[in-house]
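Researcher: Good morning. I'm working through a list of sequences from a screen, and I'd like to move beyond sequence-only analysis. For each chain I'm collecting a predicted structure so we can compare shapes side by side. This is the next one on the list. No need for commentary yet; just the structure.
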Amino acid sequence: MSRTAGIVGQHNLPEDLTSLIGPEPDRIQIGGLMAAHRVVSLVGVGGVGKTRLALAVARTAVLDFPDGIWLVEFGSLTDDRLVAGTVAASIGLASSPRRPVIETLIAAFGSSRVLLVLDNCEHLVQACAELVERLVRSCSHLQILVTSREPLGVPGEVVCQVAPLATPNETVLSVEQLLEIDSIRLFVERVQAALPGFSLSEANAAVVAQVCRGLDGLPLALELAAAAVKVLSPHQLAARLDDRFKLLVRGSRTAPVRHQTLESAVAWSYDLLDPDDRHLFDLLSVFTGSFSLDAVEEVCGFDPRSPLDSLARLVDQSLVLTTSDDAGDRRYSLLETLRAYGRERLRERGEHALLHKQFTLWVLGRAEEAGAALRGPDQAPWLRWAEREHDNIRLALEWAIASGDADTALRLVSALWWSWLLHDRWAEAHEWLERALSMPEAAPRTLVRGRALQGAGATAGLRGQYALAQAHIDECLAIARDLDDETLLLAGHSAQALLFQQQGMSEDAQPHVQAMVDLARQLGRPWYEARAAEFVASRALRTGDLSAAAAELEQALRLARAAGDSWNIAMLLGQLGDVERMRGTHPRAAPLYQESIRLFQELGLREDPSRVHNLGYVALAEGRIARAAELFTQALRLFRRAGDQRGIADCMIGLGCVRAGERRPAEAARLFGAAAEALEALGSAVWPSNRADYQHWERIARAAMGTHAWDDVWTSGRAHGIETIVNEVLSTEWMGALPVNARAISSVDELTPRELQVAQLAARGLSNRRIGDTLVIAEKTAANHLQNALDKLDVHSRSELAARAVELGLAPAPSN
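Model: Good morning. Structure tokens for this chain:
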């Protein structure tokens, strides 16, 4: 220690030749941990940037350790007997052959304020743990910062998990928004170092986002990918990510061997595993997204206890990530890069096909359990299961379709299409149903094909594709009659009644509604009986018989409550709200809509856009025009996300009423004209419950303009088309024309208490991990709450959330 003692700022830390990109709060958090604990371990998967983060933290702490900061690199060391000697050599300490090196280190450190940075300890973890424990016990002011792929497990150690960089989700973002995301910034900066003329642009933004997302935000992978851009365009790079280990092989010549290719970085961790853990790691690659312990046991062929030890070791080695679901149960996941590595090992051993079969059978079995429960008292947990396992369901469907297994594909889509619709996955439901039904092997007129046709007909009808919907329903009913299957016949009549209702053809629906009632009672299916009563109520609404409609809805509500059917209860309460609104008693409608929304949320579903839309009319009737604008625009975004063309047109009418209420009749006429064109294209008309409100505000706006001027602008709106005007409505300029307190698409009042807490902390700059620590929830749970809050507030990034915190009501306005 003689060469360092008493020299403030002495260290052997290398200069950082490139910038460190990552959240500043992480570095601040680590500094805080070091102030309170003597051993802090940065743990994470290979290539995540542990070393660079540790060095960045150490550089900022030079003045805090007047007796020196010393980096000790273990990456190239293979003999654990040389650990202590490597530390001594790194600090320039001569050891005596007559004295154990550990004693020499203890004597040298003594009571000095020294920070040791022990880098890459995972392959020497036992020896490093013994050394660290002995040094910390003997040297009162020594602090140690460790990087490793697993914790040392010594007393007093605090573990800080180093996560990959944030990646963009699949939402379309602007170039400016993307450049606020750490993984994008790192990739672009490293590409620019090799190709100075490169820039992120509208032309390449989506594909760069795809690359960063596909590489899990791993800094090493992103830097290797950036080096490849010298010979491949970002589009070519994205197209080759399935072969990432052959692609990403051009690392820095001066980097450690394990960091010169992506494969060598993963192999370094993989080779440290024992055979049983390697095998489990490979098997886990069959899953995508997250998975449960039950799934591991069933798919991978383990008894209930055997995978736990191996799974725990894989978690400790940072090869498997853990999160908690809404019920607090543990779920597991692999980064896509690690999953790809395990998948290659399975293929090499010839185990891939068999494991896929086991996986698909597991998904199918659970999906059919879910499908049987989705219309009964157990619908809530199964709706959550279907959404939680959605990535794995997609994978099972892809494999079934690719392998020509039409029976499995049809059974999966038949079981789950209803859940997809309830979770606003309309476009995806349509795609899966059509793909399964169009398989050559799916042509025979079987019962399972009939069930899939019911789903395809209902989905196409909701999307406004009425001709396609009718063709599917006709075939469904024909199969039901050919097979004399009354359950399928009931389902077919239900789909047909719904399709006629969507087109305003109540009289044509009546025979199918009556068939529904008869079959539902005969088969003991209260869900369908309640839906039939709702169809009868809708017909009464169209004719203006509000008393009859209310009576039918109350009867249906009794049936739904007796069956414990929360979804139907929520739907029926909303329709009773429609009755009150048609009576002109808007204040009595509001609590019915709000209770309906609450029940949907209890089921784990997003806010139902129809109820949000209807609350817009309540606000408008109460003179709260700004609030009405918020609600109609929020509903518009939700309908657009789901692909509900009918709902989009309804929101255009609602926003036209807002403009009429603001005394902007020309804008109202234009919106009404676009909505009329859209409804006409769908073969539909203004919904009965909206008609009185629409007619009231249209009269006001028309009178303000005069008939001829009104007709000209209304025709202009029709000519522009609904998509053009929707884009205008959702633009910053259009929203900027609203009163100031209407510009936020949704206020913090729309957030749950937990979402509000998470949003407030995120606006202050806390990472998901720090939010989780503060609120005592899992990091993934914090991330999910934050995404829900961003969606509700129509905010696209953390930086935008922070910039608009005061406007959104997440932070107090600065005082004068």
